[in-house]
Write a structure and sequence with these properties.
alpha+beta; 5-stranded antiparallel beta sheet; globular; mitochondrion; Dihydrolipoamide acetyltransferase component of pyruvate dehydrogenase complex
């Protein structure tokens, strides 16, 4: 019957293809529709908040294309597609809570070889093979070619930790190589220097004498301050993401008896040293602030007082002395308070710490700090003085046992060794320690040693590794 119908309508079959009036017609078939589940992103996270969709129903996606951004109480994660196909269904609205193991989207895969349906697999951050491709720990869509992604995967580099220098933040091959060189200590050949040529003079430029004198236009524009909007209505919203994490962390911190200790530090010599090194550091492309010196001095002090770089279990029965000095820096970002940490400070120079701080500040400003940067801290400094204030009462971040808050640097009159009044650059510091395992004398001696390193920065050279 089918053959008779084809003859009557000028259709015919040839090698499994449909021919009409000698024209080849393609038979469009649909592939299977697969649910793409939210897999385990580690750190015991069981639910996330959908912050942004990068696709809509009907969009065509390829492998590694970004699907959505989700946020846990520890970090933001960009989920990327495992399949080539068409988005058929979005399971969640923006700001909705998605549970690990449940579908995020349905994807109609392209026809062809049978697509193996991937069951939800519990992956740890250290063991996950999809960490570099399907789940980038960051707040924005990763832009990188497959070749760059492959290079990152082969060298065990997370794209979330690399700052892209290409257009719109695209990660280039050079970014991966520079990141790898920084990790391994290799020296890459310098980038060719391109001299900036001044623009050629205009052909018929009027003389300065014939031109009316104009008032110079200020080159620095004042920042635009947005006006607050008063609605007159109460607004209630659930705590999510980093704010929810802060509730959990601060509630745990309430169980810790805090011992406070405060002092002032004369940074006059350090101010002069930084002034001398600032230009050299900027010539290497790195901004040098005071924080690398504060962090390195803290690490040198922790070598003498390792109990301040320790942690206790929940029952407070055991102390673990941490071998690595992973010193955190409390950072005020658009997402809230984040505390990324510089890993293995005891092995880094002041300049290497500055490089890491530059990287983390860049990622923090764009919401791209990943789980690797936000976890594993052993000791914390809060640079609250960059906003204002002199003294503070810092709250310990469990399971750590100590934290310091740095006030703003002030120029104040002080007496020198000859009883002369001189101008001094003074900073106040406020320490908090877990008084269950740290006594006041230990905290005071550590603070004195830290202060001595900063007041006499040349002395740090003797103890540098």
């Amino acid at each position: 019957a089918a053959s008779q119908l084809l003859k009557a309508t000028n259709y015919r079959l040839k090698n499994g293809c449909l021919i009409f009036n000698d024209h080849l017609l393609s038979l469009v078939t649909s592939g299977p529709i697969l649910p793409f589940k939210l897999s385990d992103i580690g750190e015991g996270i069981m639910e996330v908040t959908v912050k942004e969709w990068y696709v809509k129903e009907g969009d065509k996606v390829s492998q590694f294309d970004s699907i959505c951004e989700v946020q846990s109480d520890k970090a933001s994660v960009t989920i990327t597609s495992r399949y080539d196909g068409v988005i058929k269904k979005l399971y969640y609205e923006v700001d909705a809570t998605a549970l690990v193991g449940t579908p995020l989207v349905d994807i109609e895969t392209e026809p062809g070889p049978e697509v193996v349906h991937e069951e939800d697999v519990v992956e740890t951050p250290a063991m996950s093979n999809d960490e570099h491709t399907h789940q980038e720990i960051k707040g924005h869509k990763t832009q990188a070619t497959p070749a760059v992604r492959r290079l990152a995967m082969e060298n065990n580099i997370k794209l979330s930790e690399v700052v892209g220098t290409g257009r719109d933040g695209r990660i280039l091959k050079e970014d991966i190589l520079n990141f790898l060189a920084k990790q391994t200590g290799a020296i890459l050949p310098p980038t060719p220097f391109h001299e900036i040529q001044p623009p050629p003079p205009a052909a018929s430029a009027p003389s300065s004498a014939s031109m009316p004198k104009m008032k110079p236009t200020p080159s620095v524009q004042l920042p635009v301050v947005s006006r607050p909007v008063f609605t007159g209505k109460d607004i209630t919203e659930p705590l999510k993401g980093f704010h929810k994490a802060m509730v959990k962390t601060m509630t745990a911190a309430l169980k810790i008896p805090h011992f406070g200790y405060k002092d002032e530090v004369d940074l006059t010599r350090l101010v002069q040293l930084r002034k001398e090194l600032k230009g050299l550091s900027e010539a290497r492309g790195v901004k040098l602030s005071y924080m690398p010196f504060f962090i390195k001095a803290a690490s040198l002090g922790l070598l003498h007082f390792p109990i301040l770089n320790a942690s206790v279990d929940e029952a407070v029965q055991n102390i673990t002395y941490k071998a690595s000095h992973n010193i955190g820096l409390a950072m005020d970002t658009s997402q809230g308070l984040l505390v990324p940490n510089v890993k293995n400070v005891q092995l880094l120079s002041v300049f290497e710490i500055a490089v890491e701080l530059n990287r983390m500040q860049t990622l923090g400003a764009t919401g791209q700090l990943g789980t690797a940067d936000l976890t594993g801290g052993t000791f914390t400094l809060s640079n609250i003085g960059s906003i204002g204030g002199t003294y503070a009462k810092p709250v310990i971040l469990p399971p750590e046992v100590a934290i310091g808050a740095l006030g703003k640097i002030q120029v104040l009159p002080r007496f020198n060794s000859r009883d002369e009044v001189v101008k001094a650059h003074v900073m106040n510091v406020s320490w908090s320690a877990d008084h269950r395992i740290i006594d006041g004398a230990t905290m005071a001696r550590f603070s004195n040693l830290w202060r001595d390193y900063l007041e006499n920065p040349a002395s740090m050279v003797l103890d540098l590794k």
